[in-house]
Amino acid sequence: MFVPVLLASSAVGAITAILALLISITDKIVNNYGEVTIDINQGKRQLKVKGGAPLLFSLAEVGIYVPSACGGRGSCGACKVKVTSDVGPHLPTELPYMTKEETTENIRLSCQIKLKKDISIQIPDALFNIKRYRGTVERIRNVTHDIKEVYIRLEEPKEIDFLAGQYVQLMVPPYDKIKEPTERAYSMSSRPSDRNHVELLIRLVPGGIVTTYVHTRMKEGETVTVTGPFGEFHIRETGATMLCVAGGSGMAPFKSIFYDMLEKGKTDREVWYFFGARTKKDLFYLEELKQIEKQWPSFRFIAALSEPQPEDDWKGETGLITQVLEKYLTTQIDRTKPMEGYLCGSPGMLDACIAVMKKFQVPPDKIYFDKFA
């Protein structure tokens, strides 16, 4: 009586195997797009690549690195390019990151465009200068309970040229259930004058692929890959009062910016640096910032705790950093002078800071940030 059952089981297994084979063959036939041409900036460069992959990754394979803070997951909206040929309508995954003007101009997310036929795009010429660097982790140290300072010595190429405030994408290898190399964007905290190193401040994000690797597996002496520099977050040479706001690892670009300004003798610029944290254990670089204040008469550092604990014995500002920013704009900062905003933090913090700055007549086009996912 077991024979029919065995025969039925064998038949089902055979049918399943045949269907899997047919699906595999169909996939290869249907999705075999052959060779595809990418025309960049009206013939400035023409690339021949294998079709089927997202535009973002196909460009990276030939050494053209479009910024992608989320590593191509479609969750940051950073990898925008202008497409001047027909690739179909915008996908639902693209529209949340597009303005009406961008949609009209056919700006697209390169991670969401699958190369099925020849395509023409426009990108900033600066992207041709982005490089992928191999480096060695020279030092890892804890600056708070959940932020590590990672200092990388560049091996090939050996020097990086960047503006203080810009970011790179750090790639980590597969581990545990992560089957592919993964990269995420992090602002550089190193000084541009230190061209042989890249320093990053990486906060542990629960479930974060790259941050988890850095905090649990990365070792001094291992080889890593970084790509960059990217971003438009850097100081403008205007002389306007700088309103700088950060929280957590958002300290990174400001550390780079302030030391760069000190080295270049730009200490006549008025700077107000507001840094928000939950408790005292989330504060760091306090001694370094005190030293900067001593060297820079028009530099003011204001730290604020949103949830100070009794053991903190905190005597400084309390509340959300946006509330403290508004307090100082109301009572201490000279608003008759031109002002510019420089922000680095979570999307929620950025939006709240922008609202406060607009309230005090800081022009929206004078508020600078890189919005990471």
The fraction of residues in strands falls at 25-35%
- Tell me how many strands there are: 17
Shape annotation: globular
CATH topology of the largest domain: Rossmann fold
Cross-sheet strand order for the largest sheet: 9-8-11-6-7-10
The CATH architecture name of the largest domain reads: 3-Layer(aba) Sandwich
Radius of gyration: 25 Å
Total number of distinct structural domains: 3
Q: What sequence of helices (H) and strands (E) makes up the elements?
A: HEEHEHEEEEEEEHEEHEHEEHEHE
**Percentage of helical residues?**
25-40%
Number of helices: 8
Structural class: alpha/beta
Low-pLDDT segments: 1-14
Question: Quick gist of this model?
Answer:
The chain has 373 residues and is an alpha/beta fold. The chain is 26% helix and 28% strand.
